[in-house]
Write a structure and sequence with these properties.
The complex is a heterodimer of chains A (about 120) and B (about 450). With about 120 residues, chain A is an alpha+beta fold. Chain A has 4 helices and 9 strands. Chain A has one domain (about 10-110): RNA polymerase II/Efflux pump adaptor protein, barrel-sandwich hybrid domain (OB fold (Dihydrolipoamide Acetyltransferase, E2P), Beta Barrel). Classes of the chains: A alpha+beta (about 120), B alpha/beta (about 450).
């Protein structure tokens, strides 16, 4: 399974990609495989304040619905509106077109609490 | 009264099947010390003839002879005979809300058509398969906006049905929710008070169109106010008046709920009723209850399914805003048949006739000294009339002396309006019956 090494991970199967003060968030290849075909992703409005390891939305597959957890605290500055028409982008391209939200981080120090790829790989394999 | 056979053989077969020796065996899961050992304190069994006589003696106490000018949410509209004939077909009358959904294609199709009718009537994008009644639909709508916004204040106008308010209060007990009631002023919601009550913690505002006092509210203004604060507008709709009014959707409502009884369902001594529940598309995943949908099967043929079930009932029960898994199947079928028979034109005629007669009664009563419309403003087929003596007395005397139920004594629900009589005139009321009402009120 593909887990890019430049990303950080949560035990709830989200990934984070950091660009300056902004963190892009999505779910991992493992998560999309476990869920199966994604039919809906419920995302917060731009401007919503999110907290580390608190739910920010839900992901709905044919037979299951899961919460999405924010890896870091901050403000949502962008959401992937494409997912409304094409939720299966999460299945096809979890680290690219399947991204969900971008968060302007309050405290980049929180990133240290997330899992590096080696540890995340241990968790799921 | 139906005849339901229950022979010794029937009982034997049922007991054998579950492996019980006798009826008492069925109670063994209940601990010995909790079981009643003595015979129940019930009257002796009756023969069929005696039973019929006894039930008839009770039912004759109902005043089903009264001429009805009372509404207040449940209305005496005409029901074409075809409605009963169709819904009493065994396929309809026995069909409970579908549990093994996809084998019940006919039931799903009726629900789908019901939802479509409600969407057309309200202008909303999605309607559910129905709810118990308008009051529980209102309470579910309040739950939805509280959960969706994660706020705790809900604003309810005093002009919505007082019975709805009671049910909402019950549903919210035990939750950390603050209910703010906005008083009426001149028969409509006091918009100055409403404006002041809306805060950043307000999840939504609940108004009725027309309201319980019969008056038309400025739904658009209320929608604008609450939307600015990031909350939702819930509007109750009267399905008959809706045939004449701008749709709640066009007025900016996010959720439209209401009582569907006027759509072919008899008064039934107050129930069963029929709740309807419709939302804008963005709220579809938060809608309570069941949702039927039309789709195509593998061979490209049209079929019906229950859809979006993962939301509330099966997988995320603990996170759901509602766990209701049923609908009001037979009453929803009734409304569907009624609306199909009446059509757009027929429903509009019912509404126009009722409005015309209600306005005529308003004029006739205004000519009697001591009577006058209670409020100034627009109304459709229900209005509050000021009475020269307490309305309670007017109601009692009109029933006793004239066989007329002249309306609802508003003092029962609004302590300041004991001289208010809420009158509705449906298309069923004849000129003679209207004359009788006027005579009764004049002579009292």
């Amino acid at each position: 399974m593909n887990f890019p090494s430049e990303l950080k991970y949560t035990a709830e199967h989200e990934w984070v990609k950091v660009e300056g003060k902004v963190a892009a968030v999505g779910v991992t290849e493992y998560a999309q495989g476990e869920l199966g075909d994604v039919v809906f992703v419920e995302l917060p409005a731009v401007g919503t304040v999110v907290k580390a390891m608190q739910p920010f939305g839900t992901i709905e597959a044919v037979k299951a619905v899961s919460e999405l957890f924010s890896p870091v605290s901050g403000k949502v500055v962008e959401i992937n509106a494409e997912l409304e028409n094409d939720p299966m982008a999460v299945n096809r391209d979890p680290y690219g077109g399947g991204w969900m939200i971008k968060i302007e981080m309050n405290d980049p120090g929180e990133l240290d609490k997330l899992l590096p790829v080696s540890e995340y790989r241990k968790l799921v394999e | 009264m139906p005849y339901i056979p229950n022979t010794d053989d029937d009982r034997r077969i049922m007991l054998d099947r579950v492996g019980a020796k006798n009826i008492d065996d069925l109670f063994t899961p209940i601990p010995e010390n909790l079981r009643v050992k003595r015979p129940l304190n019930l009257p002796e069994p009756l023969s069929e003839m005696e039973l019929v006589r006894e039930i008839e003696a009770i039912s004759i106490k109902n005043r089903s002879d009264l001429v009805i000018f009372a509404g207040g949410g449940v209305y005496d509209h005409f029901i074409p005979a075809a409605v009963d004939t169709i819904i009493n077909r065994p396929e309809f009358v026995t069909a409970y809300t579908p549990y093994q959904a996809e084998v019940a294609q006919g039931t799903l199709q009726v629900i789908y058509e019901f939802q479509t009718h409600i969407c057309r009537l309200t202008g909303m994008d999605v309607a559910n398969a129905s709810m118990y009644d308008g009051a529980s639909a209102a309470a579910e709508a309040v739950h939805l906006v509280l959960a969706r916004t994660k706020r705790n204040r809900i604003i309810i106008s005093e002009t919505i049905s007082p019975l709805f308010r009671e049910v909402i209060k019950t549903y919210l007990s035990g939750q950390n929710a603050e209910i703010v009631i906005i008083p009426q002023s001149g028969g409509v919601t006091d918009f100055n008070r409403l404006k002041d009550a809306i805060t950043g913690q307000t999840a939504g505002v609940l108004l009725a169109q027309p309201n319980f006092l019969g008056m038309l509210e400025d739904i658009e203004a209320a929608a604008e106010m609450i939307h600015k604060a990031g909350g939702y507008l819930i509007a109750t709709a009267d399905p008959i008046a809706a045939a004449l009014l701008k749709t709640p959707a066009a007025c900016g409502a996010d959720i439209v709920i209401g009582e569907g009884q006027p759509l072919g369902i008899p008064l039934n001594f107050g129930g069963p009723l029929l709740g309807f529940f419709a939302v804008k598309k963005e709220l579809v995943r938060s809608i309570p209850g069941r949702l039927a949908a039309r789709t195509l099967d593998e061979e490209g043929k049209t079929g019906f399914v229950l859809t979006l079930q993962t939301r509330e009932q099966h997988i995320r029960r603990d996170k759901a805003t509602s766990n209701i898994c049923t609908n009001q199947a037979l009453c929803a079928t009734t409304a569907t048949v009624y609306l199909s028979l009446m059509g757009k034109t027929g429903l509009k005629k019912v509404a126009l006739l009722s409005m015309d007669k209600t306005h005529r009664v308003a004029d006739m009563l205004s000519a009697i000294p001591g009577y006058a419309p209670y409020f100034k403003g627009s109304f459709i087929r229900e209005l509050a009339v000021k009475t020269p003596v307490p309305a309670k007395e007017v109601v009692e005397k009109a029933i006793d002396k004239y066989g007329v139920l002249p309306g609802i004594d508003l003092g029962r629900y609004y302590p300041g309006l004991t001289d208010g009589l809420l009158i509705t005139v449906t298309e069923k009321r004849t000129d003679e019956e209207i004359e009788l009402l006027v005579k009764a009120l004049r002579e009292l």
